[in-house]
Amino acid sequence: MLVLTRKLGEKIRIGSDIVLHVVAISETQVKIGIDAPANVKILRDELYENIKTKNLEAAEVSKAVTTADLVGLKLNKVKKDAGA
């Protein structure tokens, strides 16, 4: 992990197209602004973790339902037409 010290109004550049701006500083918070291309997803870590957990839960439920559905299926045999 890279740790940098910045003062109010200073910036940090990530690559050529992402810029972090130090917008405000208080005793317990640092507010940052982020300039990034529209295709870059920016999420707070707790939201990212929540989404990841929900996706994993949904995948497990989907897998369980699919397995149960497959077990209950009966195969229908197609009768061949004797005249064909």
How would you explain this protein's 3D organization?
The protein has one helix spanning 45-72; strands at 11-14, 18-25, 30-35. It is an alpha+beta fold. 33% of the residues lie in helices and 21% in strands. The termini are far apart. The model has no long low-confidence stretch (mean pLDDT 86). A hairpin with a 4-residue loop joins strand 2 and strand 3. A 3-stranded antiparallel sheet has the order 1-2-3, with no helix packed on it. 0% of the residues are buried.
Helices and strands, in order, run as EEEH
Domains counted in the coordinates: how many?
Answer: 2
Rg is 27 Å
The counted number of beta strands is 3
Strand order of the largest sheet: 1-2-3
| Proportion of beta-strand residues | 15-25%
What is the 3D form? Answer: elongated
Structural class: alpha+beta
Intertermini distance: 72 Å
Helix content: 25-40%
Number of helices: 1
The mean pLDDT is 86
The largest pleated sheet is described as: 3 strands, antiparallel
In terms of per-residue confidence, which ranges show pLDDT below 50 for 5 or more consecutive residues? Answer: none
